[in-house]
């Protein structure tokens, strides 16, 4: 159920330095059903370390994937229009740039509900997905997407190339961070990828996490937090060349990595490596300093919520996201401050946020209930959610952005940077005029 690593998940070094210790926390996606309210939530220690040898940031504890991604896993990618559109554009670009057609094979690891592979199927490109979570896998199969309900690794990679054909494209979005056997996973990509194929991998960028204080994206599902400096040797170790790196805004800032069996390496890789070295991300010190930033961000948020609550305000949350579970539990924000959380995912409505046990409701409730404030837990979809909730804002509702420092915004215009809520006491909460 729970193991603790003795060495770096990538290079094996024992020189791991602890940078954050959150204590015992519930599993971020283990949303509690009404029939489960009696007993306490299972909690596990969450400790983050940085490797002094390869600078990989990683969680010391491993909760088994079988526990995390079982039939209770309710994350469906298609509940975000922005993510579906992001994936469509990515698929279109790959079909064109790689000249994909009926003889090709596109493989997606962690294919979820088919949000990405559906775009290849529509264009007649053969696909196969790996998705062990039963719910999303069934949703993908209902779209006609062949889905292997097993975790991917070296053996699955070899088997696919042997029994099917080497892949022209392998897509692995928001899964590299989730795998306990990081080396086996990357080796599996190498085994499954055709000689002239490309692996396109998206993963949250540790630089964005630290610069924007996105501590709520740290939870048991995310075992690693990547820099290009840490990724390059990992790929090289398994015969893959990291040929191109893009910086994306999705999920609070992500890397899109392009890797293959041979080069050429374009200038983007060197640019990232240089920038990371210049900013100290190849050393441990910036990571060890991050705890102080997290503590300040948590304090500012809790102080703001208490100030609003003491002023008679009612506060709800938007987004029963894994990051929301982490933020609420790590900050000790419970039903004394947040009345309920709304979410479009119907598989989560009627359940409760793990740990804090805050009820999850339909977003429609915001307009009928009109809480004065809504804490934006799914801040990574800010534009989409603010646009969708424009009527709530028009009627005077206000969103609170929790990171990098709590701020209040009122406009649907995503460019509305919130006023810093840490302004001197007595100035009430800084509110951006529309
Ligand atoms: O790595 C992971 C990231 C990429 O996705 C997974 N381990 C788990 C998951 O993390 P998350 O739950 O924090 O992801 P999201 O996609 O930020 O969660 C957003 C939540 O907000 C979802 O439950 C859907 C919901 N939502 C909504 O209710 N209305 C989202 C949008 C865009 C909306 O308009």
Describe the protein in words:
This protein is α/β, with parallel strands linked by helices. The chain folds into three domains: about 60 residues, no CATH class; about 190 residues, Vaccinia Virus protein VP39 (Rossmann fold, 3-Layer(aba) Sandwich); about 130 residues, Rossmann fold. It is about 30% helix and about 20% strand. It is built from 14 helices and 20 strands. The protein is globular. The C terminus is likely disordered. The structure holds ligand DWN. Ligand DWN binds next to helix 11 and helix 13.
| Strand percent estimate | 15-25%
Shape assignment: globular
Query: How does the major sheet shape up?
Result: 7 strands, mixed
Low-confidence stretches: 412-434
Query: Which CATH architecture of the largest domain is right?
Result: 3-Layer(aba) Sandwich
pLDDT averaged residue by residue: 92
Q: Would you identify the CATH H-level superfamily of the largest domain?
A: Vaccinia Virus protein VP39
Query: N-to-C terminal Cα separation, in Å?
Result: 50 Å
Structural class: alpha/beta
Q: Indicate the CATH class of the largest domain.
A: Alpha Beta
CATH topology value of the largest domain:
Rossmann fold
Q: What is the count of β-strands? A: 20
List of distinct ligands in this structure: ligand DWN
What's the tally of helices? 14
Order of strands in the sheet with most strands? 8-7-6-9-10-13-12
Helix content: 25-40%
Domains (count): 3
Q: What's the alpha carbon Rg, rounded to whole Å?
A: 22 Å
